[in-house]
Amino acid sequence: MRILLAEDAALLRDGLVALLERAGHDVVAAVATATELAAEAAARIPAGAVDLVVTDVRMPPGHGDDGLRAALLIRQEHPTMPIIVLSQYVEQRYASALLGIARDSASTRTTTAVSVATAGLGYLLKDRVSKVHDFLEALEVVHGGGVVVDPLVVNALMSRETSALEMLSSRELEVLELVSRGETNEQISERLHLSRGAVVKHVSAVFDRLGISELDGNRRVLAVIAFLRDQPPER
C-alpha cells in the first residue's frame, strides 16, 4: 500500500521507512513536521496517491499535539482516509479525540479492535512498532477499514470510564448533575448561590477530571454522557 509517514525523530522515521519498504509497501513521503504532513496530504490524497497515513502525535512546529491535529484535519477533509497515530505514551485525551470514545471491550491481543463510530483508525504506542508482525498486521486492519488500539490505551480508557466520576468533588458532581439537566452556567449560579466565575471554574474542573479536552468536541455533551453512563455511588 502507499503510505504517507510523519515522524520528527529522524532515526525512527528512517527505521519505519525501511521496515515498511521491506514489507512491500511504498512510502510516498516521509516528513518531519505536521505542516509538511498537511501539505503532502493536501497534494497527494485528492490525487488518489495515498492509501494510509501514519503519524506521530507530538511533532513540530509546536512540539505539542500538532501531529494529531493534522490527522484530525485530514479525517475531516477525507473521511475515508485510514490513519494510524503513534504515541510515545498513553495519552487518554488524544486517543479519545481520535476515536470518539466509542468503545465496547478490551482483550489480551497485542492490538485490540474496538467498536467505534468511524472506521479505518489506529492508535498505537511507539513501543508496538518493535513487534514487527503486530505492527504490520495493524496497518492491514486499519487499511481494511478496521480500528486498532494499543491494549494499554484501551485499559486506560476503560479505567477512566468506570472511575472518573468518583474523582469529582461533591460540588463538582452537583454542578455536573445540573449540566445534565440542560441548565446553563447562569441558571446553575442562581440555583447553587455561586458566582458565575465559580460555576465556570467548577465546570472546567469537571472537564479536566474527566479528561475531556477541547479536541473532543462539545465538552458539555460528553460530560453529560459520562454522568448518565456511570452514576457515582451515594455520597
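^ that was protein a. below is b, sequence first then the C-alpha cells
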Amino acid sequence: MKKHLLVSAPLRPVLTVLFVVGTTLLGCTRPPASSATTATAAPTDPPAFAAIREDELRQDLFELASDSLRGRRAGTADELRAAVWVAERARQIGLEPAGDDGTYFQFYPLRRLTVAASTRLQINGQPVALWQQAWVTAPIEARLDAPVTWLSALADTARTSLRGKVVAMTLLPPRPLPAPKMSLWGFRYIMAALNQQTAVLRRQGVAGILLVADNTAEPQLGFVGHRYQDGVYQLPAMATAAPTVPVLLLRQAAGAPLQTGKARVKADLDLNTFIYPSVNVIARAPGTDAALRQENVLFSGHHDHDGIGDPVAGDSIWNGADDNATVSVAVLAIGRAWKQRPGQRSALFVWHGAEERGLLGSRWYAQHPTVPKTSIVAVLNADMIGRNAPDSAALLGSTGPHRNSTALVDMALQANRQFAKFVIDTSWDDPKHPEGWYFRSDHVPYVRAGIPALFFTTLLHPDYHTPRDEASRIDITKLARMTRWMYATGWAVSNTPQRVTVDPGAKLER
C-alpha cells in the first residue's frame, strides 16, 4: 500500500477556509434575525405557501448547479464549497445551526481506495495504457508475471485445472440482461457480466483474470472505466477486505494478443488509501409548542453529485441540477416557509453529503444524529423533483413492503389531494421494479433505523447522471409544486397531536 493520507493535499486550503467560516459567520449559535415575521401557528392554519417562490428557487438552483461548483463531487473541495453555500443560505434565512459544535456542519470521514499511479501492465512485453486500454476493476495490490490461459467459454473451466493460473476470455453477456431502457444500462451490463463471470473463475482458484470487452461493452468503457479510475468510497465502519484476485477489463485491441494462446502478462498493481472529509449540513427551525418543539420533522436531500467526468458532447461537468440541486433548494424554500409560519413541532433540515458514493452522508447521520434519534418523528426525503410530465410524481414508501408508516403515507396523500394534485405513479414502488429506485436515496438509512420515512421524486429521465442534467432543463413550476407538497406533508406531521409511528411488522424485502 503506497500511501496513507489523513487529508488529501488539495483539500487543505478548503478546510482552512471552512474552519474560518465555521468559527465566525457560520459558527454562530444564534444566526442573525430573519426579516420574515414569525407567527404562532394553530393546527388548523394553512401552510405558508407564499414563502415558496419560483424566483428564489430558480436563483438558488442556477447557483448550486452552476459550472463554478464543478459537479460537487463527494470528497472534493467542490463538495465542501457547495456545503458552505448551502449553510450560508440557511443562515440568511434565519435557520439555527444544528450541526456539530454550534455550526451548520457535521464532518465525517470517507475512506477512498484508488489504483495507484505506479500501476503498470504489459502484454508480451508491450505496455498497455491504464485507463485508456485497460482498467483495474477494483483497487488491489498484486503482482502477475505468467503465461495467459485463454478460455473460449466458461465450460473450459471443467476441462483442466486453472488453480494458480492467469486466465483470459471475452466478457460474456450477463443473464438476465438489464431491463430495456434501464438507467445507466451499459454500466449495469458490464457490472453484472463481471460479477457473474469472475465468480465462476474465482471458484477455480485462478491467480488473475483478464476480460476482453465484447461488442456491447466496448463503447461503454469510457463511462464505466471512469468509475473504476475513481476508486471505491466507504465509511470507515464499512471497510471490507481488499480483493485477492486482480480483475482487469481490456479493450478489444489490447486484448487481441491474449487469444493466441502464447501470451504472457506482467502486472504490478498498487493501491492508495486516502481519508477525505465529507460533510452534512444541518439546520433547524424551532416549533411553537412548548412540548412538541422537542420533536423534529426532518426534511432531507443531498447536495453532492458526480463532479468532473469524461466529456460528453464537449461537456465534462456533471452539474446534477435535478440530481439533486432541485431538492437542496427545495429544502431551503421549506426553511423560508417554516420561519414565516412555524409548525408546532420543529423542522430539522439535513443536506447530506456523499449520497452518490453510496448514501454515505445519510448513513452517517442516521448513526450519529445531532439531535436525539428518538426526537425524529418522520423523515421526508426527496431526490430529483424537477423533470418529466408536469402533473406526474411518485411517492416511494407508500406501498408495501416499502411502506413503514401508514399514518405518514396518509398525510402525504392527503396533502397531495388538497394542495399539489399530482397523478401519483406507484409502479416504481414495486419491489419487482427493475430500477430498485426505492433503495437509491437517503431515506433508506432512516427506515433501517426504525424511523417513519417517505421518498418524494419525479423519477428518472434520459439526462440522469450525464452532463445534460443542467439547471436550464428544470421545470421550475413543477419544482415549486413538489416543494409545496413536501412542505405541506411536513406541516401536517408537525401539527398533528399524535406522533406518527412505524407500522407493526414493517420490514423491507432487502
